[in-house]
Amino acid sequence: MDRMPAWADAVLVPLISLLLAAILSALVILAIGESPVEAFRLMVEGALMRSAGWGYTLYYATNFIFTGLAVAVAFHARLFNIGGEGQAMLGALGVALVCLYIPWPHWSLALLAASASAALFGALWALIPAYLQATRGSHIVITTIMFNFIAAALLNYLLVNVMKPAGMMEPATATFPQAVHLPTFQDMFSTAATPLFRGSPANVTFFVALLACLFVWALIWRTRLGYEIRAQGHSETAARYAGIRPVRIVVIAMLISGALAGLMGINSTMGEAERLILNSTEGAGFIGIAVALMGRNHPLGVLLAAILFGFLYQGGAELALWTNIPRELIVVIQALVILFTGALDNMVRMPLERAFLAARRRRTRRAEPAE
Amino acid sequence: MTDTAPAIELRGISKAFGPVQANKDISLAVQPGTIHGIIGENGAGKSTLMSILYGFYKADAGEVFIRGKKTEIPDSQAAIAAGIGMVFQHFKLVPNFTVLENVILGVEEGGLLKPSLAKARRALTDLAREYELNVDPDAVVETLSVGHQQRVEILKALYRQADILILDEPTGVLTPAEADHLFRILAGLKREGKTIVLITHKLREIMEITDTVSVMRQGEMTATVPTSETSPEHLAELMVGRKVLLRVDKTPARPAQTVLEIEKLRVTDQHGVERLKGIDLAVRAGEIVGIAGVAGNGQSELLEVLGGTREATGRVRINGEEMALTGRHADGRTRRGQGIAHVPEDRQRAGLVMPFAAWENAVFGYHRDPAYNRGVLMDNEAIRRDADNKIDRFDIRPANCRLSARSFSGGNQQKIVLAREIDRNPDLLLVGQPTRGVDIGAIEFIHQEIVRLRDAGKAILLVSVELDEIFSLADRIVVMFDGRVMGERDPAQTDERELGLLMAGIEGEPDKPEWQAIDEQWERVEAEEEAARHG
Amino acid sequence: MDFLTALQVLDSTVRLSTPLLLACLAGLFSERSGIFDIGLEGKMLAAAFFSAAVAFTSGSVWMGLLAGTAASIALSAIHGFASITFRGNQLISGVAINFLAAGTTVVVAQSWFAQGGRTPSLPPEGRFQTITLPFAEALRDVPIAGPIYHELISGHSILVYVGLLAVPLTWWVLFRTRFGLRLRAVGEAPEAVDTAGISVVGLRYAAVAIAGVLCGIAGAYLATGLQAGFVKDMTAGRGFIALAALIFSKWRPWHALGACLLFGFLQAIALRYQNIDLGAFTVPVQVMDAAPYILTVVILAGFVGRAIPPRAGGEPYVKER
Amino acid sequence: EPALIYDLGGKFDKSFNEAAFNGAQRWAEETGGEFRDIELQSEAQREQALRRFAEAGLNPVVTTGFSMATPIANVAPDYPDTKFVTIDGYVDPEEHPNVLSILFSEHEGSFLVGMLAAMASETGTVGFVGGMDIPLIRKFACGYAQGVKAVDADAEIIANMTGTTPAAWNDPVKGSELAKAQISQGADVIFAAAGGTGIGVLQTAADEGIYSIGVDSNQNYLHPGSVLSSMLKRVDVAVYDAMSAGADLETGVQVLGLAEEGVGYALDEHNAELISDEMQAQVEEAKSRIIDGEITVTDYTAEDSCPALTF
Ligand SMILES: Nc1ncnc2c1ncn2[C@@H]1O[C@H](COP(=O)(O)OP(=O)(O)OP(=O)(O)O)[C@@H](O)[C@H]1O
Ligand SMILES: Nc1ncnc2c1ncn2[C@@H]1O[C@H](COP(=O)(O)OP(=O)(O)OP(=O)(O)O)[C@@H](O)[C@H]1O
Ligand SMILES: [Mg+2]
Ligand SMILES: [Mg+2]
User: Fold this and answer.
1) ABC transporter domain: from which residue to which, for each copy (chain B) (predicted)?
2) Whether residues B290 and B375 fall in one domain
3) Is B108–C192 a contact, with Cβ atoms under 8 angstroms apart?
């Protein structure tokens, strides 16, 4: 019945799209007078050929997994959560409160508590937009945009006026106590003989992110709640018919979404900076939108897209280190990747589909006379 | 007549949608000044063929001749220019536009709207007089009854001076009287020399009005015969490829205790329009109560209230127990707990989640049942086993529960819903339009299942716009009009004409021509609605 | 707030609202035709850069406007290509366009002017100067009306008046012309448009192109009207606020004017009254900074209610699945 | 070969980072040497850039921005042979012997331009536009306010911040509106310490015919005749010196104030006509008194409060 085998749709289409994005990126690099070959070599070597490069790639990917999953879960309920940024900021705040003001005997306990707190804060920040959408019909896109700004203002206030240690220049909290230091990949995988992931920020949170992928997968495709979320997302009329209460689904889906975005805080704040800084989210909430859409809102897709973006971030850093290519070029490359794999995928898919259909026709025609 | 070229001649038309071959090498000639019927099962390719003629789809192969001249029809503009007008099965109207705006869309005079609107207003008055096609030119289309929406479609075609008019299943949404009225208009058009192609599932209509009839099956044109030389039974056989039972066999009902009692049920929609204006009704175990009425007269709202998707005031008791009509217990989940199963009118929007697989749809609404769950997780294995059972018992095709609901045909989609709801063995089954858009073969099966449930002592409330269906299933017929019960009839002691009038809100013999009386009723209702919206 | 202050705040409101308004109307055309557009921000940004760059190089602000508009239309074309021709996801396409503009403007600016992704400061002829309406000086001293005319109504750059005129024009085009009728139809029921023999694709491209023009003017206003040059990311999220205003206005031109003026007003107030001193306690600047956003949510939840987008919005028009 | 790491604002922010770049350029031109540099894009890159440059044998590694202090403290022990320089950040010299912390007394420089502002103002109201409400910006504002009050105890100071998101540093439109709002409240001199946003402030001041004061680099040339002066923060000199010293760089903590010519106010052909001899004399006098310790300018970040301004 299908026009094209599933593998082609899942593998061939994105690969060709990526290739197109790469070719166009190469042209742009050429246009500004640099060597694309050299640039790609630097990116790949810096991001994928060294363990430390992987350490960075996966660190960024961890952030994007959380925000990507957050957007994806909301999308399943047909809610466009642009508020990942603000929710992540609040999540980071939650992490900081737990890490700073409670003495923890061991990082594992702290991680549990910080995760809970990050999720809680993120979820609470999503709650008001969710509730207003569900009961008043206030468009979630507007409210979540607004809540991003409000979160930034709140964090700015708290860091400058409340949480900053006296006399410190930076609007940041004190460094968290050593006890809540999360094991990095270096701590976990290095041996004296073979140092791995040296200095890179990837840490145990990556596994939390993988768990989150698993959790979202199970939630969406294995639980009643996920079933209801998807039903509501596909058709509110149908959901109502089945006795699914839209208000409940909207609120719960957004709470989960916000919680996932909030969890990003454990990676950036507890895992990397080890203190709460003003700019802890750095737009990862928005990257999450691209990641979720490119990953087709499936956890596995989100994971892959997040790693792709992690690679672009880390590869971009390498470019910035060793060439004079401006850092914004990486943004251009990201844009091309999003454009080709996300929005122009049909440009690749349509001709492929036709090719497969034609091939099948030929096969059946050749088979017919034999019958 | 023999030396004039056919008004339409199609040669070797083929069309594939991806892997589905909708039209295979079809040739057809339609003589000018005739009414040509086309029949065929669902999915036979009728709509596709006509849409190609109208430039909506592009044929993969084949040629079109209009009045003997080879004509390229790359888009609808070309079809309109060639004098072809089409009333689609699913209306192509802009719902929030007025009638006038819909009529001028695409044939405006110049860049500004004002002159076009004025011209169309005048033309509409003339057309209305000429063809007895009254609609308020300033009414917003979505507020019109379906019958009137269809008039707008016909007016659109006439305004474009079509002399070849294609109507795709126009009577599915009309009362018998309205259908008669339509046919009178078509006859008039024919007298003027216009050519008409009529697609319908109703053999009676074919026999009544067409000059020639073509039969399609699985994308091919299997026969074209003069109507006078054929019979309904013969046509049915040509369509399905086997003999079909056109009537349901059923024994007299043996009603027992009252299952459902409705008192003074009222519903007001979000625009402030009262949709149910005090309904009293009872359904007993072991009987089928059929609600007849033109779409949009409150039947949908009645089903929605009972199914738990709409709030209401009044009293409803199920098995003697009071039913919550507002608040969080007025929902589908509670209703299911009370033994109510519901086959909704719109299977694609309500009854199924189209992107879900069949197995997921097979428990939709019952997905919280412990049988389908293990702890927090759903027991997908059990659900799939259950779905396979249902597919087996209801002969759902293709027999693959992993396909999405979307990839089943309309009839099979309906069977999925029915299987799910009937399988629960409910005390009360609510059924809306069970065979809408379903072909003859499947209708037979669906009707048998409903009767079987009745015979098992269950109460059944059936809503249908098909009078044939009401007649063949219902033990009691209740007619609804404008949110009220117009009356109750015994199917053995009434006829289509009487019901048709009741469905238009007319009791007893009207003092003017039927269609005129009906029109006045509709206009009154639409005006009231408009007032309520703005009041 | 005394009269003069009120005037000044309103004056500021007009300036802050204009780019929002132009972008919002751009979104209105696009979304009325059924194409969602979250790339307003990117289009404005690209227009801001190219208008400033060309105004600088050519010394003509009008050339700048033209170039900015062309850049914005080019991005619109990409959006159209992705979401109309290739039926891609309109949200992704919009996100991509925002990224593309953010990156490209700086990369191009850097290799063109080598001033770190900035254009040089524009000379006067490279900027839209404020214009004084007739009699503004003469009427200046008339009580109440005089200052209103002189301060508030007169003395903006021409693009402000273009923006304000765009509102009735948009209304007129949408509701009084053939094009508008078809445009509204294609956002509600593309199949009706198609069967009426009108090209759905053509209409949608036209709408997207108009959106490009309006975003172009918005961007040019930022860089050559309000400012004298381009600074990276200078749109600073205005495209998203415009999007919010569009939803707020429920896709209606006059309401869009109201929504944008409201957003502009809230910002102007927040800028003007940053340090409100309540005696013992000074309201922190962050509270005032967040106030426009908080108020927006309050107004939205309290008064605006459900916004129903054009029915066919966001979905590509697919005849044959 | 030395390395230079710019803060997130980017190499060409027309003020702070750009000054660092200029210093490095000058060094490169004068010595014919080469240096590597990187514009950071994210927080995590701070440590990364430090490590990568140190591993590549670049020495010294000069960084700008207070946010580099913590990363340097984390990284420095791993590369004892590399000298790290943090401009604006403070790293404990006891613990990290291979780090040089360079701190500027921005409050002193701001004090001087505050005096200029008060003297140039005819309305007795002056303005300040900051990028974001962070301690560093408060330090600027506080020094400025003290300078203003030193000249005119009754002067009014309107201090505004642009926003709370990173966009606040790149929103010239908002800068313009803030300037206009301040002008309408009577301000006729405005000091902008707001990165790209400041461009808008200076532009509007020029358009509206009032004075503005630039920051970090000498911005007088942007609008000759309108930019009253610029509060100089000689990051360029600091970078130049550090690069010149090379691997032999002396570590520890350097505080560059007026005495060290690390901060000051700009006087050049673009604003010569705006600064009368009398004004210059007064400022120079205050300068020497500050250097002598006769006047103490409160450093907001030391006290977390300001005698002349409330936040
Ligand atoms: N969108 C679609 N995608 C894939 N396959 C489809 C789609 N629509 C229809 N089909 C396939 O085309 C076939 C015919 O569909 P259609 O709804 O016309 O069937 P039908 O003949 O009306 O069947 P029924 O009598 O059960 O209503 C079905 O078998 C279905 O699997
Ligand atoms: N737009 C479409 N895309 C893909 N498949 C389609 C499309 N329209 C129709 N089909 C398929 O083409 C076949 C013929 O459909 P068509 O609508 O012409 O049937 P029909 O005879 O009009 O049926 P019905 O009586 O249900 O109206 C069906 O299998 C249907 O599923
Ligand atoms: Mg059909
Ligand atoms: Mg069908």
Assistant:
1) 8-243, 260-507
2) no
3) no
